[in-house]
Every structure is written in structure tokens, then in C-alpha cells.
User: Fold this.
Amino acid sequence: MTRIQSNNSQLFTSIIFGILTLLIASQTLSQYIIQPLAYDASLARSGRYSFSFEAWETIGLDENRAVVGIGTSLTQYAISGSCVENNINQNNTHVYNLGVPGSLPYIEMMQTTTAINHNPSLILLELNPINLYPLEYASSEYIEMRIKLNSLFMDSNDYGDWVELLREQDKENLDGILRNPFASESTYFNTALEQELGSFLMNETAPRHWYLSTPSPQSTDWTNYLRNPVWLPRYLDSLNESELIEYESETIAKEIKRPRYNPLIETNANYEALVYMVSAFSSNEIPVILVSYPIHPNAKSLLLDGQFDAHNMTIEKLTEFERVSSLNLIWEDSWTPSDFYDIEHLDVLGREKICSKLAFEINQTLS
Amino acid sequence: MDFVTPEYYFWFLPLVFLCTFVIGFRKRRRQIGILLASSYLFFCLASGWHIILLLISTIVDWTSANKIAFSDRKSTKTKWLRFSLITNLGILATFKYLDFFIESWNWTSLKLTGTPELDTLGVALPVGISFYTFQTMSYTIDVYRNKNQPYDDFLSFACYAAFFPQLVAGPIVRADHFKAQISTVLQPSSAKFRLGTTLIIYGLAKKLIVADNVALHVNTIFENSSGLENIGVVWWGAFAFGIQIYCDFSAYTDIAIGSSHLLGVELPENFDSPYAATSPQDFWRRWHISLSTWLRDYLYIPLGGSRNGYKTMLWALMVTMLLGGLWHGASWNFVLWGLMHGVLLIAHRGLIKLKVIGTLFDKIPRLSKITGWMITQYLIFLTWLVFRLENTSVLFQSMKTYIGIDGYWNQKEFMEVLPEIKYLTFAIAIIFVMGHFLSWKVGGLKYWIARQNSIIWGVIIGSMLTLALFLRPAETVDFIYFRF
Assistant:
């Protein structure tokens, strides 16, 4: 057996250098290999799954007042930051759109501590019936993927009371020093390295996907992208006449019966997450507008009596918190099919309509 | 709990370390008591009630060795030796081989007579049974042969039998070696700590970066059984499995030796760059050294060894290798694996007796060595197919393709058969080959790393740990030798 010479001070120095290398190497690999591929949708289907925490960094550095929309793709398709900015009275206000496709309040609550740390002027929190969708019906793979991706971009300052609201199986996907060290990095590093090696060896770089990817936070497009996300061309326009009839009569009828349009309050982790977010923002003196985005008029006409009661009750309950108001656009009759991209997302015309309504509410709240 | 679970590093090992050197400060017996208790705890967490078998083995060999040592009558000594062997081999036969024998009997009787089958017992294999039974048996045999004196106290012997770093998958430690290690108070030292840490992280890197990533390719190739007529696929499968098994098993050994070093106990090496071997005999001097020396001392030599004529040597060698194969697992492919290694060893012994070979080695030593290395490694990797594949049709198809019978080259198919992560795995394999060569050159890369100054050591160890944590696949693969 080889004899090793070492005294206590040498051992101490060795360990210090070992730990320093671990910290530097892990940061570097994560930042330069994994994160860029997370933004360009190589590691997950959408770059928006990964962009929230970096977006908050940008928002925190913005010297203007920040109004931030949080929610799902309903938010993504509803808010045009520049349009709203042009319609509000205050010049020094930026409106950011952090809507993430397929998201859930249960996942979005992970950014609560970060959001509070960056002190936004106003939160536009999406509260539609689909946000009260029982968590049990949600894809566990999606939840795992989002928690791991969020974990990749979080540091110790981003953790908060929301951790206690996570289910035990979901806590397993959070990185921890003692439990699951670098769990998220290990999930995506192999794939990221494979892509880098493949591009290097095959000398090909795949062009950035115009819709699924997000710009790099270092790029000049980033800030504009946070305010004005990329939107797909209207889905309903891609259908021919018979397909459109089928969609508006049959598909919408089927969709409206699905669990995501039958909101629940009791024993629903998404509801708990909404309560947590609203109470946390409220107690930190951050005003919140609960925005219920409109749904397609055909869908609305097919609703059963009391189908959205849980949604209405949630609005009622959450507006009891201080500095919390609501903007429920579901029951407004001004929405026409041409405002919609599909059953629930707004398109260009709808975005223009909602722009002034949001601006009005923001003015009211911030003045 | 095992050597890749965070619990081992975050609470078990630190707690044992602290207890051994704080509660057991300068108190040898207390230290041994702590190591024994923690070993039993480790075993219970790994294998549950099977600890009873370990206790039986310990008590039987402790009693037998004492009876042998303190008896003057040869017949009494022999009787107690038999008792020890029957008990240990009986436990091994029941818990490891009984179902295998029943299945073999069923297969034979079904083919011959079509009679109803016997039911297998479905006994779960106790963790580490092959290792600790061999270890405790060797103790009793050595006392019987007057080669060793028995342990002075039961606590020390029980600690030898159950010492947690090497309990589950070796190395198989000899009683006198361990006795010498714990004969004085265990002392921590910065040198031991540095070496121990190096070995643990080096082992983790081998396991998590190399073995577990390469395993994904091996499993895909041999479990999907597609493309097995493609020479590239089978060669890569055999090569990848050769890398996997070495990195998996030697990683376990490194972590075992490293953990043990932290506690002040030195364990013997188990590997010495086996893929640098230039002959089958050389391979067995470098691969699983503690098992091959055990088989040599307690099987090959008692069966006649090489000093009783050529025929006896052939017989002893073949029986040793067949039983050595069977030791690995209750399956015919391990018997075939042992048989193939027996044939290779015998063929090698025959070849080196040929005058022409001797002349070649004298005249062109370097070229002869390189040729020997290439042929040896080609055949060693062929035997890995036998080790890996239990399914006979898959095995024979793969072996045929490996040696070029009915095989073809198709690069496109090769790439399609492999899992999604390809280039990275190839890169890992290339780095392994370079590292193995370097390790052979410097006499053990891990020891070379441990000797570096603080800055270089810190950078290498920190980088290896980062890569091990980052590159580990989502699902860790169990240590292969846990099954044995």
C-alpha cells in the first residue's frame, strides 16, 4: 500500500481546495452547459419552463415599476406587455409576462419567495377555473420535470414556506445538500453534454426554435421577450370550414366536461398554492390582481349551472386578503370567437381588447 | 443502504468515524465494539434478518477454530473442521444454490421423463453470503493447518467476520491480516484520511460516471436482443460490459478500502489493472485478487496444484475454475464462464511450453507481449459475454457474432440500436481506456492522486466529485457483485 505524506494543515488545505473546486465546477457546468440548452428547448419541450427565476433577476434589476403576470399559457397568450404599458398612465412601468404553458399554481408557487425578494409593484395572478384543476389529474412527469428545472435555477434564497406545501414525492425532486445533491443537474447534464458532443462531432448546430425556445438571458432580445412573448398563429384559422364546425360544436363540448373545467377547492393542492401565494404577496405588501381570463363564448354557453362555483368562491375567499382585487372576465359578454386562438387562449384581437381592461385595473391599483 | 446512497456518506460513515475515535478514544476494545455494532447495523439495513446467517457463521467458526487450536487430537481437529465446512457450505448451498439445483433437476427430469416439477423455495439471496462464508472458512482452515493462531477474543473475531466496508462484496480478507490491523488502538491520521477520501471519491467516480452510464448501453443491447448479428453491436456490448463490471466491482472495492482507511484499518487491494494482462494467468493475478488467491490457497493447492504432475495440475485448475465460476452465481452461465477460463489457463500453460513461443518472446519481447495482450483481452471480453448473458440463445448468437461467424458490419444499425446518450458514453469509454492505461503506467492512478500536493489533489478530487454527481444516471444501477 502506498504511503501518503500529509499533515493536518495540508489535509485542511486539500479539503478547502476540493470544496472550492466542487462549487466552481458545479456552477460552471450548470451555467454554461445545462442552462443554455434549457432555454433553447433542447432539454424540455419549452424554454419557458426554465425562464422564471432568471426573469425575476432581470425584473429585480429593472429600475422601473414592475407589473408581473404569473400563470399558465392563458397568461402567456393574454398579456402583451408593450400594449399594456402604452395604455397605462405611468411611464415608468414595465409589464412582464411570465405565463408558462401547462403550468399549475402548485408549480408557480415555487417562485413566490423569489418574487417577494425582487419586490414587484403588482402581480397579475391568473385565477381561472383550470387553475383549480385537482392536482391528482395532472401529469406527474410534468410536475417532476418542472420542479427539477426550477431547482436548476434556484439558489438558497429562493426557498421558502412553499416547500412545506409540496407533496413528499415532489420534495424528492428538489435539490438539497444532504438529500438529492445536484439531482436536477444530474437529470439534465447527460442529455446536455450529449447534445454538445453531437453538435461538435457532427459539426451541426440546430437552429433555435422560434416558438419553443426563449432567448438567452444575455441576449438583447431577452427583456423584450419577457414583456412580449412569442405567440403562435391562430389555431382556429388553420382549420377548414368543416373542422371549424366540428371544433366549435363537438370539441369544445368535450373539453368543457373534462376535469380541468370542473374546479375543486377542498383537498386541492392547486387551491392551497393559490392561497399561499396570495397571502404571501399580501403580507409583504405586494398588491395582487386575480385575473380570470375569458373563455370561448361557445364554451361558456355549454357550462352547467354551478360548474364554476368553486372558482367564484375562490375569488371571493382570496379577495379577503389585503391589497388583493379581482378582474373576472369570464362572464363578460363582449368576447367573440374571433378574439380566441382556441377554446381558452386569446389571439391578437382578444389581446388588444384585454390590454385596455388590464391597463385600467393596473391604473386603479397603482394610483 | 449501500455505498452509493447519500445516507452512507451523510450520517453512517461520519457517525461511525466519530464514535470510533471519540467514544472509543484510545480504548481498543471499545473501538472494536463500535465497529462491530455498526457493521451489524449496516448489514441489517442492507439485508435484514439474514444477519442470523452471519451470526451462525461467526459463532460456528469461532467455536470450531478454538476447539481445533486447543485440542491435541487430530480426529477432534478434523471433526471441528468438518463441522465448520459443512455449516458454511450448507448455508451457502441452501441460500444460494438450492433453487438452482432444483431448477436444474426440473429441467433434466422434464427432458428425460416428463415428470412433474419440484417447487423452488424462492429463497432471497442474503447479501454478501459468498464473501463472508469464504472469509470465516479460511480462518478455521488456517487454524487447522497451524498457519494462524485463533483470535484472542470473540469481539475481534466477530468484527473480522462482519467488518462493514468489506462485508458485502469483499475484498475477502485473511484473518491474520485483519488481526494485525486491530491489534493496537485504531488511530486516525491525516494521511489515512486523505488516502481514504481519495479512494472513496475515485470509487464513486468509477461507479457513477463510468459503470452506470455504460450499463445503459449494455442493458439496451442484450435485453432488447436486436442487432446481435451485427459485429459492431456485439463487440461494443462485450467491451462495454467489460468496462462496466470492472468499474462497478473495483469501485466497490475502492470505496470499501477507502472507508476502512478512514477508520484506521488497511484492507488488501483487489485489482491491479486487469485489462493490462498479457496472458490469462496474468489476468487472474490482477482480477479479484482476494478471490483468486483464496481459490489458489484453499482449493487449487489442496487439489494437487502444479507440483504433482501435469495431469493433476490440469484437473486442479479445471475444478478450481469451475467452482470459482459457480461461486459467482447459481447459474450455468457462471459455470461455463469458469470452464472457459479453465480452458484458457490450460491452453496458456500448454502454449508457453512450446519452444517456438519461447523463442518469439526472447527475440521480439515487446511485439510478443502486445500480441499476447491483444489475444488475451479479446478472449477475456468473449468470456464477459458468457458472464453477462443467462439466456442461452442470446448468448450463443452473441458469441458467434463476436468471433465473426454469420456476423456483419452495419454502422447505421449500430447507432440505432444504442440508447439516446451515445457520444457521451463513447467518450466515457475512451477516457476509461486512457485512465486504465495511465493507472497501469503509474502503478495505480488513485495512489498517484493521493500523493499530489494540496492544490492539485483538491482540484482533481473536487472535479471528480462534481462529475460523479452530475453524470450519474437517473437510476443508479445496483453493484453487480451484490448478487454474489
